[in-house]
Design brief:
single chain, 634 residues, eight-stranded antiparallel sheet, 23 helices, 16 strands, globular, disordered N terminus
Length: 634
């Protein structure tokens, strides 16, 4: 028979057996080993060099665990050589996948509505099965917490029944005439930028971080630099669609004001969000930004008040400030514009080799006021490359021209991958070595807030976003939802008032100086002051308040009603249980014990007071066997 094709016959010679190959094989092996060796050596040299240039593990107090100090020493090279390249690959893959998905699906329409109905049915079926099984465990989404835009690593989901919602990521409709968008909650800001900007549209509140989902903004917290005019993200929502714990589908508009205003900041404690209808704005291709330096907290506050109070057509479309120390800040007032001009030249701020935006803004402190025109897409995502100003804490030379030239095109590390690399020890230590906190306070309180942030944190720059808070209590009969403004802060003749979001992201001064920073003491002080002045804390951060203190800060009256009415109390965790940090981050046992003792003492004192009042005002009557006659009703 024939010889097998893979075996050399007498008339064939195997390449592997040829004299030439036998002579070159050692050379190939040597070349391969040399290449691997050079690669490993180059990696090690680059790793050590980056560690020496960028890490600050040696400056950390010895109070921090050795694992955290080692991680701090290796942080810069790990980010540069591993996390940043992986983030670039993952980002390109995600972009290609979502564009392919969009191409295959088409732009909304009837097919999108049919797919959406099937998506909702799959969620409803999961919930009905849980319901039939006896409603034994609380409900949460199956999304991993490392993928969420919060500081938390753990999810508190281990004992919960997890519902798959990962497929809810489709844009269902863009109404260009009616200026509305309908989409599923998993759609990201980056996807919406790609979809809307070519149409000359944007969300009414178009958040700058590209990986944030629209569902997270609707059920949590969303603010942008036009919030001084349009308020928080929740003010842009026209309709919520959610599925309750029985698998029933609900569509909620302002026609049901108590439920409608209960949903913002509710963190999915009434049901699972399945779609949103939100307002859109018409845009111009450019934003003309004026940079106005200020030299005191009082000047900054008065300028923000003046700019925000200007009438329609005069007030900036976008308004924010960046505070570089306790006194010096730069206000950024942005106006839509059709084209650049000689007075406002073009600056594509997000090109990879450009300085980080916040560093560019800082030049106004030295050179004085100036203006320029920025492409809208660059402006909307102006902080993406530098993760606000966090990247320089992680890679100290990341704004250096050489780094930008060699590495800048790879982009920043993904926040989700940064979280994924943490273990419990590093995660806990990082809370006491790094601050991410935001306090929303009445605007006139800003100078006091800046002084207190300097005392508590000493981390700069600070984010300053003016925001209009709307009072909807007249629509509901008493409450605007979790963010119910104090009547004293509402402007005369208006249904709203001006607050300001002051945000600290970075390494506290004490940690930079090699000392210990008490996160619990300082953050609890911030929380207490924020409650006192009628403000609110951003809940994506690590909170150190108790459940009682959270309820003192936020108005839960509408949400409690909604949870009872839609059988959410036994189905979903409380807001506190969803936003609190994982076990081991904050020990509140002493505070909780003090609250219990005070409640017990107060209850006992109340009983004694009631008893004393009864003994004075209502002496005991003799018992009578005869029944008292019923009162006559007129």
């Amino acid at each position: 028979g024939q010889a097998p094709l893979l075996v050399a016959t007498p008339h064939q010679s195997s390449t592997a057996d040829s004299p030439t190959f036998q002579q070159t094989r050692p050379l190939l092996n040597t070349t391969m080993l040399a290449t691997i060796g050079y690669g490993v050596a180059s990696f090690v040299i680059a790793f050590v060099l980056a560690a020496l240039l960028g890490s600050d593990g040696g400056a950390l107090s010895k109070e921090f665990p050795w694992q955290f100090r080692l991680a701090a020493a290796c942080r810069t090279p790990v980010l540069m050589l591993i996390v940043v390249p992986l983030s670039f690959i993952r980002g390109k893959y995600t972009l290609a996948r979502r564009r392919l998905r969009r191409y295959l699906r088409g732009p909304g329409g009837k097919a999108a509505a049919i797919r959406h109905a099937a998506h909702v049915d799959s969620i409803s079926e999961q919930l009905r099965a849980w319901d039939r099984g006896g409603r034994k465990r609380k409900l949460r989404t199956a999304r991993s917490n490392w993928a969420a835009m919060s500081t938390k690593l753990g999810s508190n989901k281990e004992e919960c029944n997890q519902i798959a919602l990962g497929h809810m990521n489709e844009i269902l409709d863009v109404d260009e005439d009616g200026l509305t968008l309908t989409c599923e909650p998993g759609v990201t800001m980056g996807e919406l930028t790609d979809e809307l900007l070519p149409l000359g549209l944007m969300l009414q509140s178009h958040i700058e971080m590209e990986s944030i989902t629209i569902g997270g903004l609707a059920m949590g917290f969303g603010i942008e630099t036009n919030s001084h005019k349009v308020g928080l993200f929740q003010e842009s929502v026209l309709e919520y669609e959610f599925v309750d714990s029985h698998g029933r589908r609900h569509s909620v508009t302002k026609d049901q004001p108590e439920l409608f205003y209960a949903l913002p900041w509710s963190y999915g404690t009434v049901g699972f969000l399945t779609s949103l209808k939100v307002k859109l704005l018409r845009t111009q291709p450019y934003v003309r930004v004026e940079y106005l330096p200020t030299s005191s907290a009082a000047e900054l506050t008065s300028q923000l008040q003046r700019l925000a109070a200007l009438g329609e057509g005069q007030a900036p479309d976008f308004l924010e400030a960046t505070l570089y120390d306790r006194d010096n800040a730069v206000i950024q007032a942005g106006y839509f514009d059709a084209r650049p001009s000689t007075a406002a030249p073009l600056n594509r701020i997000n090109v990879w080799y450009k300085p980080f935006y916040y560093r560019h803004v800082e030049t106004a402190l030295r050179s004085g006021a100036f203006q320029e025109s920025i492409p809208l897409q660059h402006f909307l995502h102006r902080f993406t490359r530098s993760i606000f100003w966090e990247l320089e804490d992680m890679i100290p030379f990341s704004n250096h021209p050489l780094y930008r030239a060699l590495w800048g095109w790879l982009g920043p590390p993904e926040v989700s991958l940064l979280k994924l690399a943490q273990g419990p020890v590093i995660r806990r230590a990082s809370v006491y070595a790094h601050v991410v906190q935001e306090s929303i306070m009445p605007l006139w309180r800003l100078p006091e807030g800046i002084a207190k942030f300097d005392d508590w944190f000493g981390a700069y720059p600070l984010l300053v976003f003016p925001v209009r808070i709307f009072d909807h209590s007249s629509e509901t009969g008493g409450s605007s939802g979790l963010l119910t403004p104090r009547a004293a802060e509402i402007e005369q003749g208006e249904a709203s008032g001006l607050w300001v979001d002051l945000g600290a992201y970075g390494v506290p001064r004490a940690v930079r100086e090699g000392a210990v920073w008490d996160a619990k003491e300082n953050i609890r002080a911030m929380e207490h002051w924020t409650r006192e002045v009628g403000g609110w804390q951003a809940l994506y951060t690590d909170i150190f308040c108790t459940p009682t203190e959270l309820r003192q800060m936020f108005d839960f009256s509408l949400l409690d009603k909604a949870r009872k009415r839609h059988d959410g109390v036994d189905a979903f965790p409380e807001v506190y249980d969803k936003v609190k940090s994982e076990a081991g981050i904050s020990d509140l046992s002493a505070e909780l014990a003090a609250e219990r003792a005070a409640a017990k003492k107060g209850t006992a004192a109340g009983r004694r007071s009631q008893s004393a009042a009864t003994s004075v005002k209502s002496p005991p009557r003799r018992r009578s066997r005869s029944r008292s006659p019923r009162p006559i009703r007129g």
